[in-house]
Amino acid sequence: MRIALFTETFLPKVDGIVTRLSHTVDYLQRLGDQVLVISPDGGLTEYRGAQIYGVPGFPLPLYPELKLALPRPSIRQKLAEFRPDLIHIVNPAVLGLGGLYYAKSLEVPLLASYHTHLPKYLEHYGLGMLEGVMWELLKAVHNQAQINLCTSTAMQEALTSHGIERVEVWQKGVDTELFDPSLVSREVRSHLTQGHADSPLLLYVGRLSAEKEIDRIRPVLEAIPNARLALVGDGPYRAELEKHFEGTATYFVGYLTGKDLAAAFASADAFVFPSRTETLGLVLLEAMAAGCPVIAANAGGIPDIVTDGVNGYLFDPADEQGAIQATQKLLSNPQARDALRHNARQEAERWGWSAATRQLQGFYGEILAQAMLSAA
To answer: What residue stretches are annotated with the Glycosyltransferase subfamily 4-like N-terminal domain (predicted)?
Structure first.
């Protein structure tokens, strides 16, 4: 198959969507497909054998890390050269609308996937009154696709309840070779705790943005004697978070990738994730693969990954004491913590990227079969 993938974000940016897409592109190419990635220009022209066509863009005012790239006529020429069998639009917002347009005008089958819970993000940026409008826009775009993919059963229910049709769950995936409990390191732990390796180490990994609700970790940190917090990642909310955590034992690590990131997960005592807007929470699966017990809000797609008391702890996001009590429970019982680590790793081992990509190929094949029947 020849797949043209339109995405609003791709490498070298680092986030959960890019992680999924980069592994998907890699495995599609390995399995014999050809991929063309059309994304905001990040300076890359090739990845794992796939072509990348970068479209010039400009930073999004509310989120400078994201580039807004407008569709342009040169995309049509690139598509004509590539001759895609289908077009896959990821989180269609601006550039993705170009993918929708070209799928229609070139009569190429269309698949869309939903990864960011935009309607729920709005309230964190003072735009909650636009949630209804956002759902209508999403419905108008997604209902033109032959299949709409999302990343959890919770998101499937949310999309379907708001009138989006033909919604299927694209299974989760994680790199179980990279993220491994054996990477636990005293040196890494000392770095993340700023020289206090024997203190309890709480970890957060992800975007430092308002919708992640990272500020809610402070009461947890303050409730654990001698605890240290390491925040891995960066984003538009960093300055506000530095003020919020001022006077606490918090270390802003910045970005980590590859084995450095995997070692951070493996070396922490608990991964704390308070976000209520996750469509899946891929970073949780990475933590679990590295044997790091997770404490997460019982919301969005997170319950698809974490089974409370088995491979992590879930807390009621409306309960201010929930995360504190779960963390205290985790840290006070080493035997239970070891069981959680073991079970977390076992859960992660079920979800390799190869299986997730083969499932995606199945959706692609279904769309192409429909197109052939329609043309007959």
So the answer is: 14-177
Query: Residue 61's domain spans which residues?
Result: 2-173+352-375
Q: What is the Cβ-side half-sphere exposure of residue 219, based on CA atoms within 13 angstroms? A: 11
- Whether residue 105 contacts residue 16, with contact meaning beta carbons closer than 8 Å, is answered with no
Say how many domains are in the chain: 2
Q: Are 121 and 277 in contact (CB under 8 A)?
A: yes
| Cβ-proximal residues to 58 (8 Å cutoff; 6+ apart), any chain | 67, 68
Note whether 207 and 281 are within 8 A (CB). Answer: no
Looking at residue 56, the DSSP 8-state letter turns out to be: P
Residue 56, class by beta-carbon neighbours within 10 Å (0-12 exposed, 13-18 middle, 19+ buried)? exposed
- Sheet strands side by side (includes 86-90): 46-47, 50-55, 34-40, 2-7, 86-90, 110-113, 147-150, 167-169
Which of 97, 53, 113, 109 has its CA nearest to residue 79? 53
**Each residue's pLDDT tens digit, 82-118:** 999 999 999 998 999 999 999 999 999 999 999 987 7
Which residues are within 8 A (CB) of 129 and not within 5 positions of it... i.e. 6 or more apart? none
Residue 111 and residue 22 share a domain:
yes
Query: Do 307 and 159 sit in the same domain of this protein?
Result: no
Q: How many helices (H) and strands (E) does the chain have?
A: 14, 16
| In a shared domain, residues 189 and 236 | yes
Digit-coded pLDDT (tens) for 335-354? 999 999 999 999 998 888 98
d(CA 309, CA 272): 15
What is the C-alpha to C-alpha distance for residues 59 and 66, in angstroms, rounded to an integer? 6
Are 205 and 327 in the same domain?
yes
The reported pLDDT for the residue numbered 372 is 87
Closest C-alpha among 296, 234, 250, 289 to residue 266: 289
Encoding tokens for residue 246?
A: 């001022």
CATH of the domain at 205: 3.40.50.2000
